[in-house]
Amino acid sequence: MERDVSTPNDALHLERRVGLVSGVALIVGTMIGSGIFVSPSTLLVKTKSPGLFLVIWAACGLLSTLGALSYAELGTMITESGAEYAYYRHAFGSLPAFIFSWVCTLVLKPSQLAIICLAFAKYTVEAFVTECEPPIFIIQILCVAIIGLITFINCFSVKLATKVQNIFTAAKLVAIAIIIAGGLYMIGIGNTQYLSQGFEGSTTSFGDIATAFYSGLWAYDGWNNLNYVTEELKNPFVNLPRSIMIGIPLTTACYVLVNVAYLAVLSPTEMMQSEAVAVTFGTRALGTLAWLMPLAVCISCFGSANGTLFVGGRLCYVASREGHLVDVLSYVHIRRLTPSPALLFNSAVALMMIIPGDIASLIDFFSFTAWIFYGAAMLALIVMRFTKKDAPRPYKVPIIIPVIVLIISVYLVIGPIVDNPKIEYLYATLFILAGFLLYVPFVYYKKVLPGMSYVTTFLQLLLEVAPSTSMAED
User: Fold this and answer.
1) Can you list the domains of the chain with their CATH numbers?
2) What InterPro entries has UniProt attached to this entry (predicted)?
3) What torsion, rounded to 10 degrees, do the Cα atoms 367, 373, 378, 382 define?
4) What does the CA dihedral 431, 437, 443, 449 come to, rounded to 10 degrees?
5) pLDDT tens digits for 38-57?
6) What would the pLDDT profile of 262-291 be if each residue is shown by its tens digit?
């Protein structure tokens, strides 16, 4: 859908085109990606028992729900897009907001997009190359093509991007329903020997439990994504909390039932040895329909990647609009009303991240960094309960909820460092600290690199974009 440019002096801005159904689809569609099809094996390796395995899957869903309820308060109190970026700016000031935008636009969102697209490419190639390990460069080429296609969809039209999200979310829910139905059938005929092992042999390691949460929470990540597009949400005071209340419990129920289904068919040993639990499940349980599982993974990853780029571009757009990134990233296409420069930038960084091709390292890097910022958002909510007592809060959570999520966030950050330190954690810390060095000259003193005005003008003409305004107060 294009904008009518015949109206003079009409300020450019993103329009409210995301309704309740699209809001739920964005949450569910970005949460259900590759994680539920890949993560179970990693999580079971860490927990060492079916009982603790299922408890942590459910606990991850509960933690995501508590976090999202806190975000519902933040999102209805501060109706700007950008999620954590906007909340830090209002609670703590410019510096923490800049640090978040720096890390998120250059690490978190691009790495998330790269992980999902690499998983898509890996499963697609493996469906055709069965005799040997597929060449990494083939996977990377397909990954580049998928990122390009998703970028085109999001740059072309917000309406098209949300339609794609709705369709692929519905498709992946059908795939999950097939897995659940297959598992329930196996339980019905008496295949409960693996589930009956319960908590036998469960780990007691502080670090193993924390890293098990990392694997589970990676599958749940996306619970905060609707907060990134609040300015484009129709009636955000109503639709933001409703979308959260529908989307996250639905995803949690799906995840727990899918893992019960896996254990009704596969032994814990088989699950731990499988790199693609859903594909192994399909081979064992679905017979001639086993091909549905690789297809389901690809559909799920594509929908999740589409939603991830949709929200990642909005964060980049908002941070630029507030002067924390180069100006051109806050510009909007003059007819299509999409933040195309921000979307292109996000995709370009993701393309660089696919070069190593190591999904496991990217997940470790992502999870460690993400939970630092999720915890900081909980702290922002608590702080604003005292500093902004009179601010209107259409939706308000009991204060104990953000306190619990904050404590768990601290555990998830410190636990792996103490028990099993990795180089990815050091890289993440150094990258955060680098943001402090960049803040002083480029934000505080507003220094501009020579020639940036010419670059901005060139990109503005090339991409047909113009400066925009905020919809937060509309």
Assistant:
1) 20-466 (1.20.1740.10)
2) AA/rel_permease1 (IPR002293), AminoAcid_Transporter (IPR050598)
3) 160
4) -90
5) 667 778 888 888 899 999 99
6) 999 988 888 888 777 888 888 888 887 888
